[in-house]
Amino acid sequence: MKLKNIFLFFFLFLAAVSNGQTFSIKGRITDASTGAPLSKATVYINNTTKGTIADENGFFSLSGLPSGAYELIISFVGYNALLTPIKISGKNYEGIFKLQLKETVLRDLLIVSAETKKRYLELFKKNLLGFTYDAEKCVIKNSNVVQFEKGKSNDEIVAYADEELEIDNPVLGYTVYFEIKEMHFNTVTTDCVFFGYTRYVDRMDQKNINKKWVRNRKLVYMGSLQHFFRSLANKQLAKNGFSIYEVDAGVSSLQQQGGTMKNDGMSTQLSTAGSIGTADVKISKEENILQAVGNEEYKVYELLIKNQLLIKYRSNSDLKAQLSRVMYVPGQPELGTISGLRIKKSPVYIDYRGVLLTPMNLFVDGIWTNERLANMLPEDYEPGN
After folding, report:
1. What are the φ/ψ torsions at residue 214 (nearest 5 degrees)?
2. What does CATH list as the number for 22-99?
């Protein structure tokens, strides 16, 4: 199977203060034309488990939020979903959020046989959920709402849905709702791009601790991109099993194979991570690639990469292990997991929690290009939860 797949998620860029003080986002949701309240509108922080429903008068409140930058998503049947970037800086945020009615869009619905539609739907599921055993266990409960239309070329297909997809992830214990804006995929090259918003509903709480879910979440987290950035920001790379190398520009250890994967604007060149070369320089301290910037009340760092970073995790990550069981994964050592990072354009910022603040400016290589919904965790996940 060719791993030339591309897809896009909108990710939350969460930034927090270290003193533990939290705040709230409060507001009222109305019809942009009439001003009438939109009762029971869905409100959530993108790519997290933080969400709620507006009351009968359109009011809502999300509490327990540290100071920082958020993407607030509001959706209501028959209206365009509203994405609002919000920055909380030492105080609560309040606002009025106005939703626009959806306009009727005439689509060139693709009329295909039941067998062809089934094949398209399978391509859709695999690119959205992933290629692992965990992905096979996930179920899109309302996949019937996915429709297809012709793309710009004979080989391109566009998929869309007028309601958010409900995905059951029994391995990690989440119900994931994905509001797909649109999806493009090429039936010949298998290149794919997704646009949408993601919210997680955690089926586990303090009164119902599922040890299997706790274990599986920890497995997914270890060696992931999320784990790496948190380790980098906390200056615990070595402690957490990561080694990083500056790749010589003339002796590339990452053999590019083309394609671009986009994750909330995070452009990710689909590449194969090669072995660590003799020309690669090991970076011994996080300070060598992190530079504190700005005067924010929380710490923000610029990521300094001259050429490429080759990143080795000391163990076989769960993602690598699962992929290796179903396909050939080139460029990986027998023990350990190799991925990489490259600057698309400067600057690249992360906050002190390890959240990537400028995803459009960074390319991701290697195993991390295969992170999909079935093997991803919400931004507010903490190991052990």
Report:
1. -60, -45
2. 2.60.40.1120
